[in-house]
Amino acid sequence: xxxxxxxxxxxxxxxxxxxxxxxxxxxxxxxxxxxxxxxxxxxxxxxxxxxxxxxxxxxxxxxxxxxxxxxxxxxxxxxxxxxxxxxxxxxxxxxxxxxxxxxxxxxxxxxxxxxxxxxxxxxxxxxxxxxxxxxxxxxxxxxxxxxxxxxxxxxxxxxxxxxxxxxxxxxxx
Length: 173
Description:
The protein is an alpha/beta fold and 173 residues long. 29% of the residues lie in helices and 36% in strands. Helix 2 (32-40) packs antiparallel against helix 3 and helix 3 (50-61) runs parallel beside helix 4 (82-95).
């Protein structure tokens, strides 16, 4: 398909933008990791304030309902506390069109309190370059059941384990 609207939450990555635009898609970018740091600091415990959560959602997801055909959330969701995470996923559901897809990554280390943070760049239609950005506090523990519950409003959730101890999650609205 050509002419889709895609939200890339890795910040403005020229590789990602070029790849998606060359496919004929419209790209919107947000830097969720930077926004999390600016709104809440680096520790997930600060992410329970309702007014800060609403500010964060307006700052990053202030789009009309059913705007996007796809969202690249990368690994940002795993660094959110339960309150922020649930509010974010609800807002993402609202701004995505029916039958659209999102991609997200979560660590497969279910008991870790700190997990690696990565930068993701689309190299080509078969390759994503994953670069380590250091360790960061995990917002909570994720397993397949937690993720199914998190994306419960969506129509399907698929899991794939990567060789980098990441759980690749593809979700269909």
